[in-house]
């Protein structure tokens, strides 16, 4: 990796610092238990790529003159997205999130669900109290898409009948819709035209798809890509490397691989056999080509905007999404 995420973030370091203060303030509550949980959530910040997309996209249209609407837009996305993550951990019965205990692991499911509801209501109120209807519309649509994508994946996992078009529908909704909303919110908060907001949204969607494809590659990793863990196979998730490998397989091989995914997904040896088959059948190469194609499409959209420091930062950020090692 030629440049780190911290270096990419440098041009908006002040905005990110101010955003973090504003976001912490927006999470405060008079209820002691809730305030304690909010503090815990805020401390577990990840890569912070979502607000980075918001701020860089806003700067693309307004230079350094970022207004309060952009900070509110970034906060809205974080509030609604954090609400979905808290609820996801309850649904998945997950005890960890980013290496920390999940809210439901520490405070049980009932409290976690209520915390998710609280975050959702905070996000809605933040927009309504400031008449940010356009921003609320963009982010609410993303949350709807994410829910539909998750349900589509659950439905298909039961039957293991995901083809390539369904796979792209799932990742467009589950992952790409969120990054698309970050870019659209950044543009809208900076007063961009409807045409430019849509271009920003489509740019984010392409980046989001490339990002998720990279995540799916980690499951089959090589020395260049990551660690072979086989988590997706264990969870019966049909991702692009496996979909392509099965499409190229003869009937008997296809039947054997699907049987292993469906019935032997808890057996590490069988899971490794599936991973090895995907590698030897060209699944990894095919998937890397698809990821690079979406990266190129995102760049092409970005280059319809005038050259600027923010455009350069966005170029670096999307390069990071496909070159990262974790």
Can you offer a commentary on this structure?
The protein is mainly alpha-helical and 326 residues long. It is 76% helix and 1% strand. The chain has 15 helices and 2 strands. Strands 1-2 form a two-stranded antiparallel ribbon. Strand 1 and strand 2 form a beta hairpin. The longest helix is centred in the middle third of the chain and has 27 residues. It is globular and about 60 Å long. Belongs to the FPP/GGPP synthase family. It holds the Pfam family polyprenyl_synt.
Cα distance, first to last residue?
12 Å
Order of helices and strands: HHHHHEEHHHHHHHHHH
Principal-axes geometry comes out as globular
How many strands, which pairing sense, and closed or not: the largest β-sheet? 2 strands, antiparallel
Number of helices: 15
Protein name: Polyprenyl synthetase family protein
Pfam families: polyprenyl_synt
Cofactor: Mg(2+)
Keywords: Magnesium, Metal-binding, Transferase
Q: What's the helix and strand layout?
A:
Elements: H1 5-9, H2 13-26, H3 32-43, H4 49-62, H5 68-92, E1 96-97, E2 100-101, H6 103-129, H7 133-159, H8 164-189, H9 194-218, H10 231-234, H11 240-248, H12 251-263, H13 268-280, H14 283-302, H15 309-323
Antiparallel strand pairs: 1-2
Helix pairs in contact: 2-5, 4-5, 4-8, 4-15, 5-6, 5-7, 5-8, 7-8, 8-9, 9-14, 9-15, 11-13, 11-14, 14-15
């Amino acid at each position: 990796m030629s440049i780190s995420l911290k270096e990419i973030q440098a041009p908006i370091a002040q905005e990110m610092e101010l955003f973090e203060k504003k976001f912490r303030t927006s999470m405060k509550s008079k209820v002691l238990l809730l305030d304690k949980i909010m503090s815990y959530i805020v401390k577990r910040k990840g890569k912070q790529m979502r607000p980075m997309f918001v701020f860089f996209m806003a700067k693309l249209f307004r230079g350094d003159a970022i207004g309060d609407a952009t900070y509110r837009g970034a906060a809205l996305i974080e509030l609604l997205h954090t609400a979905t993550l808290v609820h996801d951990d309850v649904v998945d019965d997950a005890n960890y999130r980013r290496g920390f205990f999940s809210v439901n692991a520490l405070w049980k499911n009932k409290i976690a669900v209520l915390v998710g509801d609280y975050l959702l209501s905070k996000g809605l109120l933040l927009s309504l109290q400031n008449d940010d209807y356009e921003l609320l519309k963009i982010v609410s649509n993303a949350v709807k898409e994410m829910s539909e994508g998750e349900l589509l994946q659950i439905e298909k996992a039961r039957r293991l009948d995901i083809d390539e078009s369904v796979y792209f529908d799932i990742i467009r909704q589950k992952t790409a819709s969120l990054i698309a909303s970050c870019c659209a919110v950044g543009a809208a908060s900076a007063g961009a035209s409807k045409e430019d907001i849509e271009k920003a949204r489509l740019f984010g969607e392409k980046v989001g798809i490339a990002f998720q494809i990279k995540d799916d590659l980690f499951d089959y990793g090589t020395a260049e890509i990551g660690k072979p863990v086989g988590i997706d196979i264990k969870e019966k998730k049909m991702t692009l490397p496996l979909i392509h490998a099965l499409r190229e397989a003869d009937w008997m091989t296809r039947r054997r691989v699907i049987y292993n995914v469906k019935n032997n997904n808890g057996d590490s040896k069988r899971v490794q056999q599936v991973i090895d088959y995907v590698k030897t059948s060209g699944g990894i190469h095919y998937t890397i080509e698809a990821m690079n194609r979406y990266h190129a499409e995102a760049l092409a959209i970005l280059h319809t905007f005038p050259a600027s420091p923010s455009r350069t930062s966005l170029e670096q950020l999307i390069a990071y999404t496909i070159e990262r090692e974790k």
